[in-house]
Write a structure and sequence with these properties.
Elements (H helix, E strand, L loop, with lengths): L7 E3 L1 H9 L6 H9 L2 E3 L1 H10 L10 H10 L4 E2 L4 H7 L9 H13 L3 E2 L3 H4 L8 E2 L1
Helix pairs in contact: 5-6
Length: 133
């Protein structure tokens, strides 16, 4: 029998750091990347698209980046389901970043941890999502 895989959903910064600056990852995140036990979300792409024109943006062309680092690397994508969207309404107003809120709801709906260094997201854990770093 093969090992039981525990998948994790990556916050956008975790996804970007995993490809561009792995020294910023936590030891746990490094292990998850090495095993390939992670998922990404269309919300990651959406966030990169909206931020790509800003000063300091890591990604200059989100579509090309996604094709190279997600599609060509066969990274698994967790779809945004109606269940996940419905869960957003029950999240407390710790912050109002729509990308973080849908990632939290997606991870909760899929019953998987969200890997993030974002202190605001970590405040949702463990009552609304398992957030780890």
């Amino acid at each position: 029998m093969g090992r039981r895989v525990r998948l994790h959903l990556f916050d956008t910064h975790t996804l970007l750091w995993s490809f561009h600056d792995p020294s910023r990852l936590s030891p746990l995140a490094v292990r998850i990347v090495k095993k390939g036990d992670f998922l990404v979300s269309p919300a990651n792409l959406w966030e990169m698209i909206l931020k790509m024109g800003r000063p300091g943006a890591v990604v200059k062309n989100a579509g090309a980046w996604w094709r190279q680092y997600v599609e060509q690397q066969n990274v698994r994508v967790l779809p945004i389901t109606t269940d996940a969207v419905m869960r957003v309404q029950y999240l407390p107003p710790i912050h109002h970043d729509p990308f973080d809120r849908i990632l939290i709801a997606q991870a909760a709906a899929a019953n998987i941890p969200l890997v993030t260094a974002d202190a605001a997201i970590l405040r949702y854990s463990p009552s609304h999502v398992t957030a780890v770093w």
